[in-house]
Write a structure and sequence with these properties.
Clc chloride channel
Length: 398
């Protein structure tokens, strides 16, 4: 028991230290490339060529890393596979930074989950672990990446468990997973305040039957937005697969993104879109913002560029909530906040993690509001999520 304790203590500390440091560096680099892009907008014209470099690099050297988050899911379901290559971490970080530098519309969650999982998986090579322990170790890496990137350690731990199998949440290893999430987030904060801070929601509305009805309506619309995002991505993927030459896919996709930015005369829909997300809590925005973001994100990722989906989903949900404010008599900031996490919940099939994340970001007093809209969005959006390898079953705790 003593040997087991110190083995896991070493693994938790090692993973937390490495992933927390990497998240801090990644967040800093992401801010820098975004600032450079916004002050040198001509660089967006190079997006098609950047996409070709990304696709060529992954085809030539990526191997299994090309599967992205789905490789982590496959490794969890079948730990006897060759495993997750260590090169997944540097490749996904560099290609995500390239995508953002040159103007693609993508996120960062997928990047954090992949480098967290890849770093954790490398310890399998020199620390003897059984099949179940390998699974727990992988979840520790996923949790640490998510937690340290967003500054939400509790949500990071729950997301790792929900992501791999919502149907039967396995509580074995929860202590190690939670400890890694908490410690990695703490390590990341040692390097400065790099996380995004969102505006406060304000006064908590008094509960009544109409309030519940409005939340059910909003949650249903967020679930439909999740479906729209998923189907838009599927349509673009099918279209790009018809192009026989893989290097032409990002080239054409990059040109389409450039044309869209040129026609709209704004860059607020590319990159992470943090400034627009914050504005959605504070002032009315054009009601088409969420639709444009759906199209550009699906276009960017389907063409072969790298990055996550979650921050674009935050954008989509927050701007959709903002657009609903004139029609649903709830505070604009509350609608933006519920949309922020509910579209995410519908797409990733992780309603509990999304509820906890919202509580960590906006406050426990709104917890029931978030829980209702996240669960409704999860139900309305159907069984299929954005991770094709994800196994979804009926919800069971034990």
């Amino acid at each position: 028991m003593i040997r087991l304790f110190f083995k896991w203590l070493f693994l938790i500390c090692a993973i937390s230290g490495l992933v927390g440091l990497l998240s801090a560096a990644f967040l800093y680099a992401l801010n820098e490339v975004t600032l450079f892009r916004e002050t040198h907008r001509w660089i967006i014209l190079l997006l098609p060529f950047a996409g070709m470099c990304i696709v060529w690099w992954y085809q030539r050297y990526g191997g299994g890393a090309q599967k992205g988050n789905n490789l982590l899911l496959e490794e969890y379901y079948n730990p006897t596979t060759p495993g997750i290559p260590g090169k997944m971490a540097p490749m996904i970080i560099l290609t995500t930074l390239m995508t953002h530098l040159f103007g693609g519309s993508a996120g960062r969650e997928g990047t954090a989950v992949q480098y967290g999982g890849a770093i954790a998986a490398q310890f399998n090579k020199f620390v003897p672990l059984g099949k179940q322990d390998k699974r727990i170790l992988l979840l520790c890496g996923i949790a640490s990446g998510f937690a340290s990137l967003f500054g939400t350690p509790l949500a990071g731990a729950i997301f790792a468990i929900e992501m791999v199998q919502l149907g039967k949440i396995r509580w074995r290893g929860i202590v190690a997973i939670l400890a890694t999430a908490l410690l990695s987030n703490w390590v990341c904060t040692l390097y400065g305040d790099l996380h995004t801070h969102y505006p406060p929601i304000g006064e908590v509305p008094s509960w009544s039957f109409p309030i519940v009805a409005y939340l059910l309506l909003a949650g249903s619309l967020f679930g439909l937005a999740s479906i729209l995002f998923r189907y838009t991505g599927d349509i673009f993927s099918i279209g790009f697969k018809k192009i026989k030459q893989p290097l032409l896919r990002p080239f054409i996709g990059g040109i389409l993104v450039i044309l869209t930015v040129f026609l709209l005369q704004t860059t607020k829909h590319i990159g992470l879109g943090i400034s627009t997300i914050i504005a959605a809590f504070q002032q009315p925005l054009p009601p088409t913002d969420f639709l444009i973001k759906i199209g550009l994100t699906a276009l960017t990722l389907s063409a072969g560029f790298k990055g996550g989906e979650v921050t674009p989903l935050f954008f989509i949900g927050a701007t959709l909530g903002n657009a609903l404010a004139p029609f649903i008599p709830l505070p604009m900031a509350l609608l933006a906040a519920t949309g922020f996490v509910s579209v995410f919940a519908g797409c990733t099939k992780t309603p509990i993690a999304c509820t906890v994340m919202a509580i960590e970001l906006f406050g426990w007093q709104y917890g029931l509001f978030f829980l209702i809209t996240c669960l409704i969005s999860y139900v309305v959006s159907g069984k299929k999520g954005i991770y094709s390898a994800q196994r979804i079953k009926n919800f069971k705790l034990f």
